[in-house]
């Protein structure tokens, strides 16, 4: 039987779609299998600001972050829907011992003294992404090139080899079961959306003892965050948490004091102890020449690492 595609990507979130588009750019026929529409994945909930949050230093991760920042900056200049470069301010409370490891992925990071309780203010420019229009753009780009997205839940990775000789496992949290990987775990994230009173600068205080705090403006709203709760696997609303997030963000950016609340978003980041898994292995018995490439465990840095990671996945899928 002739394969219907050269590569099947399982997973329709940001990692899966950027990988599918990258594979297609390199000449592969690509089919994406996903149980949900891309707009209904956890990727659509993300604040989606370039920053390798809760990601440990690693040469591969730094390379992915740098390549993704360059690509998103290019897309912002090209007018890709949802992608904007914004000035960013990051306030530190700890003693400043020099640029963070991820600074090597930027072109313009500077540091200056800050007023207490802060010690240092970092300034840099970072791409931001509004995920719903961006995921739609990725889907359109894939389909315009002949790729397909099929709504299908995969129960076993081996089953996908009936469609293509090469499979990319970009299944996020589901990889814990599909790849029998006990290192995969959820990290609950909670965001509050308010009307934008005219803000254009992103602001972060990740050292706030009350919880990580960030304010990310978008065209019509502002994303207020947030939480990072490893091992918490539910998305039930929590009014007390939402109120606490808003209080922290208003303290950080007082202009938000009268901004009406528009809603909230809760999602489960697909994390993995030890960092993202990006590696290839032979396909199962009975799939001659088959190859399985894993690409999951990006936690809250999926957007930040997406295009750089996709390039490496494509190398593994097509070049061996």
CATH class: Alpha Beta
Order of helices and strands: EHEHEEEHEEHEEEEEHEEEH
Annotated CATH topology: Rossmann fold
Which band does the percent of strand residues land in?
A: 25-35%
| Percentage of residues assigned to helices | 25-40%
Number of strands: 15
Describe the structure concisely.
It contains six helices and 15 strands. The protein is of the alpha/beta class. It has a single domain (7-318), classed as NAD(P)-binding Rossmann-like Domain (Rossmann fold).
Task: Identify the notable features of this structure and list them briefly.
320 residues, alpha/beta, Rossmann fold, nine-stranded mixed beta sheet, six-stranded mixed beta sheet, 6 helices, 25% helix
Q: Would you write up a description of this structure?
A:
- The chain has 320 residues and is α/β, with parallel strands linked by helices.
- It has a single domain (7-318), classed as NAD(P)-binding Rossmann-like Domain (Rossmann fold), CATH 3.40.50.
- The chain contains six helices and 15 strands.
- The strands form two sheets. Strands 3, 4, 5, 8, 9, 10, 11, 12 and 13 form a nine-stranded mixed β-sheet that branches. It has a six-stranded mixed β-sheet with strand order 6-2-1-7-15-14, covered by helices on one side.
- Helix 1 links the parallel strand 1 (7-10) and strand 2.
- The longest helix has 20 residues, at 59-78.
- The two termini are 23 Å apart.
